[in-house]
Amino acid sequence: MNTTDLDQLKVFEIFRGLTDAQYQSLAQLLTPEKSAFKGKILIEQDEKSSDLFFILEGRVEISIREEAINTINPGGILGEAAILRRGPTKRMATVTALSDIVFFQISVEKFLDVVKKDPEMYIKILENLGIILEDRCQTMNYSIRNLMR
């Protein structure tokens, strides 16, 4: 990846605070880009998978039993529970493209093979993941309260 592509990786919340060398090792991992049209289902609730999705362009909707609970914008990650479990997980929600999207997709096993080689990067990614999950829990709590009204 060239410098522009490395800058592209810096939009991802999960990679905030990494060094350029760490971005470089991730850049080799997160290629090539994929795309999907509006309405495409990326993740189906209850399926088992270990794929991570990094949204570059467009927006996706997260829904549980056909109820929208959150929207993920560029810079967001999907499938993050697989990082914590270090392997395939049962998907908790369905993820559908709200617009045409561009994304990276990789298995958690390949992702962790690279990340674990650099303990400082691994720790930083886990710290960032904690922040992401806290934000998502707050959003879900708000959505649940609204559904119960």
Task: Describe the overall structure.
The chain has 149 residues and is α+β, with helices and mostly antiparallel strands. The chain has a single domain, classed as Sandwich (Jelly Rolls), CATH 2.60.120. The chain is built from five helices and ten strands, in the order ααβββββββαβββαα.
Break the fold down into its secondary structure elements and pairings.
Blueprint: H1 3-9, H2 20-29, E1 34-36, E2 41-43, E3 48-49, E4 51-57, E5 60-64, E6 67-72, E7 77-78, H3 81-85, E8 89-90, E9 94-97, E10 101-107, H4 108-115, H5 119-147
Antiparallel strand pairs: 1-10, 2-9, 3-8, 4-7, 4-10, 5-6, 5-9
| Class computed from helices, strands and strand pairing | alpha+beta
Major sheet size, sense and barrel closure: 4 strands, antiparallel
Our count of domains comes out at 1
Strand order of the largest sheet: 1-10-4-7
Shape: globular
Rg, alpha carbons: 15 Å
* Helix fraction by DSSP (H/I, runs of at least 4): 25-40%
CATH architecture group name: Sandwich
Under CATH, the homologous superfamily reads Jelly Rolls
Q: How many β-strand runs? A: 10
Strand percentage: 25-35%
Q: What integer is the average pLDDT?
A: 87
What is the string of helix and strand elements? HHEEEEEEEHEEEHH
Number of H- or I-type helical stretches = 5
In the CATH scheme, the class would be Mainly Beta
Q: Kindly report the CATH topology.
A: Jelly Rolls
